[in-house]
Amino acid sequence: MKTKTPALPVVATALAAVAVLPYPAWADPLPAPIEALAAAPGSAGVLAAVAGSRVHLTRDRGKRWGAVALAPGIGLREEPSAENEDTEQPEDDAADRNEPVLVWLAVGDSGIWAAARGGEVLVGGPLPGVRRRLKASRVGGLLVDGDDTIWIADEDRVSALDGRKIGAPEVGRWRVPNAGSPAPNLFDRGVLVPGRDGVWSLSIRSGGGPPMCDRARAPARAVAVEPEGGSVWLAAREHLWRRPAGGAWIDMGTTPPGVFGLVVDGDGSPRLRTASGWLERLGGAWRTTTAVAATVDSRGELWTSDGVSVRSLASGPPAVPGLRSADRTDLGTILAAAFARRAEEAGEPPCPTLVATLLPSLGLGAGLGRGLALDESDVPPESARQDRTWFYVGMQASWALDPMPDPSCRKRNEAWRARERRRSENLAALWGAWLRARSSDSADPGTLAGLAAEQRRVEEIIRLESGVTPGRKEAQ
Amino acid sequence: MKTALILTLCAFSLLLPVAAAAQDGPPAKDLRARIDALLSPAPDEPTLAELEQAALALADADPQSASGWLAAPNRAALLPVLKLSVNHDMGRNESLDRDQVDPDRYGVDADRGLSFDASAEWNLAELVFNPDEVRVYGALADRAERRQGLLTTLVGYHFERRRLIVQGAIDPGDDPVAIAERLLRIEELTAAIDALTGGLLSRTLKRKGGPGKKAR
Fold first, then answer.
1. With 70 as the cut, is the pLDDT of residue A449 above it?
2. Touching check for A377 and chain B: CB below 8 Å?
3. Does a structural domain hold residue A160?
């Protein structure tokens, strides 16, 4: 259901916003109806909200809000058109034309943001003001990644812009039919984009490959990546799918039709964005929430807005249902054991040391010889003959004075550390997946079997990597 | 293939009591406990550890077989470079001294010698750092990576196969296409596990008279 917003109150609210900046505590209401919320990809305290015609930014978990952009005349909030009144649920890509026009928002760690509605994209931050306006055919989602690259998905393409350079040309463009809202790809610093043919993995450095899922999960409507677990979640064909890192797709049950947004929090709980608002799953059934905007920050914390204020549901670290306090140290135990095991097998490659340069090559030698010396002269005729036998023992020390250090050593070790970091991240993701598989529950026996198998699979991989089985501290 | 489908159906039939129990609506906890039990390998199948061992042996990726590689370069530096040489020297020096008063004088000095030399050389720096260590570390890291990839794949195949078998048992569904797809996937996974383990899964099923043998 759509409600018409009178123009005058919007203007009045915008003026009021200028008067009361900066806004006080996070629980206090922002001065205009909030329509979109975004969290930065790496800095958990950085959030942005679109309220009326303004974009608001906080860097301290909402303690202080500042309005960083005012776009008079453009106004991200517009009256719904007749086309938007149609709330018929879309089915696959054929029904996309009936989707309501949404406000999209994304913010980077530095405060660079991008907001869009329909075919208008505004880019700004970190300083106040709109820095750039772009036209797009029909925006299906936005993302600002950890490198401040702005990813814009519009109808049939995905564009990447360098958010730090005003007016810079695109740094990448890919054709993705029916591109939806992108999600960060934790593994190659690119993005995952749902589309008509599946989920595309795009990266500025490596370009794009074929869709990462088959036609059974296409057209993909919304994709999300768990902040901690790294699992990819997908809404497609009225089903919710989850693919753990390195695993297979698991059917997580059905969804209502018309999903065009998805977030997954640190507990592994999905929320769906539909025409009728944000939905959460309780006991296997989807329930409409009071949230009009939702986002998940890099720590897996879910932030929602009821249109008036911005709230975080978790006050501390992400809570996992059924998580025992001992589990919190479980990951540390696993990582330490895995690291020790790797160091034992193939640790950080060594480099030449000064001691090694100073140490000489030491040689010991011995020899035995026998010889004959003959000295003859014709005037006067005389001859001398001498037999000789000799034996020697010698010692030699030599230094190769090579002041040039091995130039490849540092590079090689950096590569090793990067690989170990990736392995640790992967292990942490597996641990997160294990926690979720363990604590997830379902009334559906098939889903339950899938979860149990997933738990066992992850347990075994963690055990192989570290020798520790999650939930048990002792190394095997 | 027909036999294979029958085999898997037999496996399902062994698990049918669970399916019935699920339909009766037992508490989720009980169901999960049963699923956990079913996920463990059947008595006529090799255990996951056996499969892993077979896969590692086949791929020569067993960590034990490379356990001595790290110490080898430094240990190698304890052994010297030995040189043995035999020298046979021959020398002849002829001279003619000419003088205005005295007659010319011709002389010959000849030397001949045979010697044996032995030397040993230690590069003490290699006790601290041997350039070969870098290659060994690289090889070990590659080996670990390869092993991890192999085992991750194997574990994934194993549990996907178990999951499909259990899911088919507790919730077979009534869509023949879906059932056929599931059975084919199980066969595919069995073949994939066999490929990684040198046929251990099929061999064990055959030897222990698992569902496959019974079906025949």
1. yes
2. yes
3. yes
Final residue of a domain: which of A262, A283, A312?
A312
A157-171, A270-284, A293-307, A462-476: segment of lowest average pLDDT: A462-476
CA distance A223 to chain B (A): 23
Q: Count CA atoms within 13 Å of residue A354 on its CB side.
A: 0
Answer yes or no: are the C-beta atoms of B171 and B179 closer than 8 Å.
Answer: no
CA-based R_g, chain B, Å:
37
The DSSP H or E segment spanning B157 is: helix B131-170
Which helix (H) or strand (E) segment holds residue A274: the answer is strand A270-274
Both A174 and A286 in one domain: the answer is: yes
Q: Counting Cβ atoms within 10 Å, is residue A85 exposed (0-12), middle (13-18) or buried (19+)?
A: exposed
A386 in a structural domain: no
Check whether A319 has a pLDDT greater than 60: no
Residues of the domain holding A331 = 327-352+406-466
Alpha-carbon gap: B171 to the closest alpha carbon of chain A (Å): 6
Angle between helices A445-466 and A327-346 (to 10 degrees): 40
Task: Give yes or no for a contact between A47 and A56, defined as CB atoms under 8 angstroms apart.
Answer: no
Please tell me if residue B3 touches chain A, with a CB cutoff of 8 Å.
no
Of B36, B124, B162, the CB nearest to A359: B124
Q: How many Å apart are CA A173 and CA A180, to the nearest integer?
A: 15
Q: Name the domain count of chain A.
A: 2
Of A312, A343, A364, which marks where a domain is finished? A312
Q: Give CA–CA dist A90/A97, Å, rounded.
A: 8
Taking alpha carbons only, the member of A283, A281, A212, A221 closest to residue A243 is A212
Euclidean distance between CA atoms B5 and B2, whole angstroms: 5
What pLDDT does A56 receive? 82
What ipTM was assigned to the predicted interfaces of this complex? 0.70
- On whether the CB atoms of residues A318 and A299 are closer than 8 A, the answer is yes
What residues form DSSP beta bridges with A202? A191, A208
Q: Which residue in A56, A58, A77, A52 sits closest to A67, CA to CA?
A: A56
Peptide bond into A126 cis (omega under 30): yes
Q: Clarify whether residues A226 and A286 are in a common domain.
A: yes
- To the nearest whole Å, the CA of B209 is away from the closest chain A CA by 25
